[in-house]
Amino acid sequence: MVTTQEAVMGEFVRLEVEAGVGTLRLDRPKMNALDAQMQREIIEAAVEADRRDDVAAVVLYGGERVFAAGADVKEMQTMTYQEMVLHGHLLQDFTRAVAAIGKPTVAAITGFALGGGCEVALAADVRIAADSAKLGQPEIGLGIIPGAGGTQRLARLVGPARAKDLIFTGRFVDAAEALEIGLVDRVVPAADVHTAAVEWATQFVGGPALALRAAKSAIDRGLEVDLQSGLEIERLEFTGLFATDDRTAGMTSFVEDGPGRATFTGR
User: Which of 55, 80, 230, 249 has its Cα between 20 and 30 A from that of 207?
Assistant: First the structure.
């Protein structure tokens, strides 16, 4: 794992890598409005984070002031139906790319995470929010609905009734309510959000990368199917790990030295 910082740059999105943790940084002042260019750059950064062996886990971060205030409404205002038929695929592709990162991911949420910004956070495995953060899917006020995964991921996360309440009303929820309903997993002071997210991600550095990837795949794919199909997914992921060096190292270390002492290579 690298210990010095490296960065892969786009104009508005960059992947910063330091000590095995990748930070996918959104940086389009003032509110990180997610226009088409930014969506494409998120895809590129997510694919790069998934590909790189020196990235064990990924933090999604919009900076100290805001996570992301949503899609760029000015860009969409004049789009025709025909144009949105094409653009609608990109809207889902950029959150699909985040969700497809085969490593632990955590959204570090400061300020607003609204609309598309909330949908980016929903695509992460875990969400850590500032005590001053506000989240929501306010698209109904524009005469539309969430289009980057919000109707699907939000309902799976907080349940259909709560998802309908948030999407029907378009209301914002503060950090305390978000924690109560399971929309976020932890609330910390605003100054500590990025640090807390990096600390969570750091625990996976030097871990069994293929087992982590298999666990994430089994859980995410299993949620899409019935129980028996999910169990079959789990069985295949489980048995496949017996072909890995990390499984051999983990079990040998356990037998010879006790739990928690294995050294993994990610292979």
Answer: 230
